[in-house]
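Re: Re: token formats

Sure, here are both.
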Amino acid sequence: MILLALAFFASAASAVTPPSNFTASASGYNVNLQWSGASGVYMWELKRQAGASGSPTTIAAYSNSYTDGDMANLTTHSYWVRARDISNNWSSWSGPVQATVAVAVSAPQFTHSSAAGFTVSLRWTAASGCWRWELQRRIGAGSFETVATLSETSYADPVGSNHTTYSYRVRQQDLHGTWSPYSAEAGVTVAVSVAAPANLTAAWGQGRVNLAWTSSSGASHYDIQRANSASGPFSSWDTAYSASYQDTNVASGPTYYYRVRAVSSYGVQSAYSGPVSALDPNSVPLSNGLPESPHPYTNGYSNTWTYYGSTSAIALDVTFDARTATEAGYDFIHVTALDGTEAPGSPFSGTQSVQKTLRVNGTAVKIRLQTDYSVTGWGFAVARIAPVFPPPPSPPTPLKPSGTVAGPLLLSWSAVPQATYYQLEWSSNSVTWNAARMAGTAYAVDLPNGSWLWRVRGGNGSGLGLPSGASPITLVAGYSGTLALAAVERDGLRYSVNLQAYRGPPAIVLTVAGLPPGVRWSFSPSALSGSGTTTLELTGLRAVAVPGAYPFTVLAGTVPVEGARGTLTVAGGMAVEDAHAFPNPSYDGRVTIRASIAKAPTALKLRVYDLTGAPVFEQREDAPFSRFVEVSPGVFDYAWTGTNDSGRAVAGEKYLFWLQAQGGAGTSSARGAFTMLRR
């Protein structure tokens, strides 16, 4: 009977009732589980399976409910539960029950989209719990491509094409990694325009045409074209960087027509202004070879015409029509320079049967018709006045550019005799050459990264001369900058570096080259993205033994920053400064003498005197120092124990000290006083 009772008790204890009313429901990324449990249950064990093929996971629960959090989205989760009593007996499993997590993140919406210049500004809304956004862009009718993945709800997109529609869409991701659908598209049309130059005028000056106009807002330069007819054809003539221009490559007689357009720094071109015309008002009217009528001139007629030619001409050829006739010996035609120098063959009179050409040196000519009092049949016509130019100039010598950073690069060359203008040419393949004309010997060309060739020609009225040899340039991505001294400290210098990227890398690490040994440097921040301002701090100047001027360069990576060059000037002399003793007065017979020394000393000497000038104590030491202690960079202490050279304690009174420093930068000393009291 006892054995049967024990067996029954053991059988009854092992029978744990399975949980009932087992339910599962999804809320967001959580699954809420509940069940009913019998008394005597110590804990429950849950088993979870994600999807149809996931590996089961076991979860312990100590109440009859459980929240399973941070679950995978768009997934059905299956659960089983069983109970355990305090004797570690388990019930059978209840379940399965299922819950599907299906969280949808709403799409963001654009709240702002506009273009200013070639930058598109975008802003959009954010749903609660979202932390990352993917922005995509489509150009025209193309396909969407990802522009950026962002942690903020705005973006400024630098675009490159004018008169182009850019379409954008954005989606957002919550903290659980769920992406929303893409937003509705926002289309922005970039339409950057530059106003045409207004009030264009052309005025003739002596040997030149002066152009002027009202500047256009946003223009970086102006393209000038010239033609010999109002209807063209117009050809590119030169580039101006202000609202005026002087054309010196002109000759009297023909009428010149000009038109000008503005070009922005983005390369956007305005419409042309003009054309406007310019004719030398003092030029001799040409009469197509027909003689002038002698009537109604009165007796004793005298008149002078003046013709101004190109300033680059060396002489003028004046050709008279073959029918030019005057009364021989009485009527004369004078051809002279402005200073009155007669041209060979002038004056002349009589009847011609062929054209007559006279040459006058210089860039201007006077033609005077002079008759006597017996007017008979005469007349003349100027058939042609042509400038005589020197031969085309010899090739200029290209000078080495000042930098190798892509962007506006200043190219320069030597001036050559007889050249009145120059033509700069550049190419990336030595086959197709770009060209620009200018009056000076330097020109800024905006070139991208890569290998380039450039050459230059001199020109005058005779045309362009031969080109110089092609000079190679290899341009790299980089930065330009300015370097300004921001603050001066006792043991350091601080410079502000303003940087502007020229198609540079997205982020750079700044370094310095050219500093003397012993000078340390740091940047704040050490890495820079895009353009901006950072601070360069130089320290350790007291460690520079040899004074002088040390040029240094700021580098972005390995490329020198154009314009960010400075000079660190280390003053001469040892410059022992701020020498003093402490404590002063001293009550315990000990005193420390301290001084700042601007350069690294090789030897230090200390002398102490009483008020009569008698020497009391002397200490000299060569580097490396042990008695003289460098407590901070360039600051030295000497602890004097108040004893004389014989080792005896000195009396309590006032003393003088003299400290001298010697080194590669020279010798310097300083004096001071202190009081020692004896108790």
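Second one below.
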Amino acid sequence: MYQICLKQYNGSTPVKKESWIWEEEKREQIFRFQSFPCQVQCVKQEDCQGEHVSICVEAKEPFDGPISISLEIVEEQWNKNAYVFMPAAVYDGNRMTSKYIPYPPYWAEKTESGWDAVITDIPHLSKTKRNSKIQLLSGDMSTPAMGYFDSRAESGMLLFARQKENERYTGFTVEEDGNQVIFGISIPGVREEKKYFFGELADGSGFYPTCDVPSCDEGILLGKGDLLQLEVKCCRIRANTRNDYFEKFNLLRENLEKGKEFYSVPFSKAYQTVKEKCMKMNYSEEGYLQVGIGHTDSSCWQSGWVGGGMNTCSYLMEDDGIARERAYKTLQFIVKNLQEENGWYVPMYAHGKKFGDAFDAKDRPVLLVRKDADLLYFMAKQAIYLRAQKEEFAGLEESIVRQADALIRLFQKNGQLGQFIDTEKEELLVGGTASAAIAAGALALTYEYTGKEEYLEVAEALGDFYWNDYLKKGILNGGPGEICQASDSESSFGYLESCVQLYETTGKEKWLQVAKEAFEFAITWVVSYDFSFPENSAAARIDAHTRGTVFANVQNKHSAPGICTLSGNSMLKLYRFTGDEKYLKWMARIAHALPQFVSLPERPIDSIEGEQLPPGFMNERVQMSDWEGAHTVGEFLYGSNWPETAMLLTYVEIPGIYVDLDRAVLLCCDHVKAELVACSEKQITLRLANLTPYDAVVNIMTDHSSRKEPMGHCYYDRMKKAKVPAATEITITIEERESCLL
């Protein structure tokens, strides 16, 4: 049932309301509200995807207060077990136990039925109360959309809107009232009385994520003759599984708003700038590459997650000088200094001291397991590369084996890897998450390196565990160490990486099917459109495009440059396995978005603190949401963050140009235009145009995708390098033997 609701506000508090129920059989209706001086015209058009609804409010006289108009779908006999979805913001209604905990939060509570999944005070529907509500603005989501999936009825619904109408951001509301639910889209969006905020509270009580901060939203004041318009797409969906539902969402999510093609900073320019910064500012005199510039303990060493032992990968493959030497030394430092006797890698280290991951007591032997799972994956990846180069060093294989054995012991003892553990006792401190989902891929890759069958057996057992207990339920959670057990993109992409690795290692069709499902879920975190930033914001000044950026999690409501912390080449492998170009499309979007957020000498990026980011700095904030305050939308914090590692990995693992000779597919991820001029059995000719003001060195991969051999991880040196000067066009001919992947 459609319902049109008009509200008048005093600030963000509704003071007057009138609703009108649309006569379902009519396509077009005109209605006059009794309490407001306006006429509303509603038009409904059907197509193969659903119903397109247009609403136009015309003020017949000036309004005496600001208003908002909403299209609401009212569902009676609501099944509270239905899966409520708002992409990158709400998964299964965020129905977890909510705790009012200061940041950074840490919570461990086990009940008789298992681990109690906890979230902080973030937007969520209640697990127990009859009445609860979520109100968000369009910038809180990767796509301005919401809906639900009801497994009992094998059906679902999706509502889409534009991010803005009448120059105001759109609002999205889900409100449960007993056996009824209302899904409403409004313009302008007004979060009534309260909104979500993350930061230092005004009363000085501390730094919190909380939904109990006064809303600063307001309605819009209409004068005589003014119009207020809203467009909504409503799609009713038949879906047998949640995966069917997500797949249909991803097919439909660009039906009202798409991103634009743009050319900003070539991969090579971004990579070189980040690399120079890291060589200048990230190398410790102790002999290892830090995850940051070393101004705090946490920016010295952290295993995995934000770059520890991962930021070395590109230098080993790409460099032949000091960067490679330092990467090699870093791996040696990890093996000699950053591993405990029982195999666990040290989660944090700075200036000769080891630290744990417990926020309140860093001297405790606490580990966010995902960190060591990340590190094992990248240690194995780099060890395989070094072995191929005949450059392994003493202790490397033994170190990898000890860490793999530690993960196996933990899994066999507990039936899961949990989120936080005591590394001395090897006991779970916090369980019940998919935080370490990449461990399945790490063990599969370690099997390839060592040939030890047990690693593959446990890898597949872990793959099954995360599929049955998490992906099938539409929850992958707890990847970051400071969100409790909330849903997040990092667990999602970590599990996708694992599934692709399991298929590449085993060739079992099962893992290919699960990888497809993992992709559909993970990609819901990726922004599908270009957000309209405030005119004078830092993001607007660099003409930032948000399509392809990746939301962090449902607590930390910012998008970010890239996946934390992967290149996304799992999607290239999925394309090669299936021939489905959607995997290439989303991979290219994520990779293409990254370089624009590198601060360059010629184009520095401004920070909200008033300082410019030094060359090579990348900040993780792509602020589409006002979660840290309205003044932060479109602004960057001053800081050097993990997207730098994502940029390094992207350069060596994502082809700037990919040519599939077998399927006649040409894909350009880099910031150049590419055209296939000629193609024969022995060579191809490409025309490349560099529309940016920076010289580019483009990595080109030509491929025979129909060949069954796995792609692996060590293909950088088999890509052809093409120099394309700034603002020029060149033609290049590539002999097949020069750059064919296989």
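The mean pLDDT is 96. The chain is about 25% helix and 25% strand.
- S.
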